[in-house]
Amino acid sequence: MAESSNSSPKEDTELTMCDVLQEEQELEEDANAVLGGSDDTNCSYDKGYVSRQALYACTTCSVNDQPSGICLACCYACHDGHEVVELYTKRNFRCDCGNSKFPGKTCTLRPEKDPLNLKNKYNQNFRGLYCNCSRPYPDLEDDTPDEMIQCVMCEDWYHGRHLGCEIPDDYFEMICGKCMETHKFLYTYLNNFQNIKVCDDENTIKQENGVQEEKFKTAENKEAVLSIKEENDSQLSTKNQGINNASAVSFQSDSSNVKQEDNICNVKVECDTEKGAENCILKKMETDKIITSGTAFWPENWRTELCHCSSCMDIYLKYDCEYLLNPDDTIQAYEERGKGCATESQYDKGLSALSQMDRVKQMEAIRAYTSMKGQLKEYLKAFADNKRTVSENDIKEFFEGISKRKKLNNGVPYFCR
Questions:
Q1: When comparing pLDDT for 248 and 295, which is higher?
Q2: Least enclosed by CB within 10 Å: which of 89, 153, 155, 359?
Q3: Domain boundary at 314, 342, 370, which?
Q4: CA 20, 137, 82, 153 torsion: positive or negative?
Q5: Is 286 within a domain?
Q6: What's the DSSP call for residue 100?
Q7: Which residue range(s) make up the domain with 287?
Q8: Of the candidates 347, 280, 284, 267, which has an alpha carbon nearest to the alpha carbon of residue 314?
Q9: Which stretches make up the UBR-type domain (predicted)?
Q10: CB contact at 8 A, 108 and 71
């Protein structure tokens, strides 16, 4: 049992300067991860279809619900004060700001642009909708705490509870069920990872001691168990046998009479012998293992297992997913580059700016800070005395009041006119 605490609510909510600086540092690291790899002063249009960048959708400038995306710099320079939807990052996208999707508006950073960026791809995120539930985020009508996870292929975001599978703790990337269904060849790779964990809320597949047990409920809500002994895959390469990572996919069956042959992997890759089929990793992997359906959670470095033979390269080209072979395409790689671009924290920048002031300006800045601190303390004391919650509007009202008083106090004295 937890020990009882005698500390007061006030003591529990007190923060030290170290706590504030630590929280500020964490927020800055998160911001640098997403924004650090993108240019905040120059429109990215001239860079073409950028492999990955932070993007936004401006609903203020949207016409007829037409999807469009703008880069970080244009979000600041051309759409300041607008209703903007943050899209996190997208791949192979060229900034739309000021093109034909924005009639009557010209990009201030890069006025001359083509009418359309024909290679751009748009999904429901550009309309502020996410997941297979097509709801906004944050959703004011849904207060259920949940994690949003991005599919690395369609790049849509999904609620964890809507993926139909328990979220593993050690996954690296996720591919949604729709994308797995479209790119069926990926199931062959998925089935050849050792210790694969397949799960679903109602329909589960468990792997224990080399035996897979499929559980599914019949129409009469009776459970039937189908045990299939896992066969050793003699063709599996030593490299693949060394993988010891867990993945998870959901398994669903609408029929009460599930036949084993219905679950056999039917994803066959026809490799042209003239293109070096004998060296095709995917061809060697093909076995009569059970194929699953639904969301797939992949372990780290899973992309390095993908075959690079000419036949498989044709498959990637056909499905427009060559990016899977690029190690720099991952969100993690982009975020690391962004963190590497960070120079100094806002706190350090403040100290640096203060040190460059002369003595008089330093004292004025310190007095202004001390005055603001005292006023804020008195302002918040009224909320504490009345047991009221401080809202965002309350804080805005406080600083607006300071700004008004500052303007009144900065008037030129009568005798100096």
A1: 295
A2: 359
A3: 342
A4: positive
A5: yes
A6: T
A7: 129-201+282-342
A8: 280
A9: 41-112
A10: no
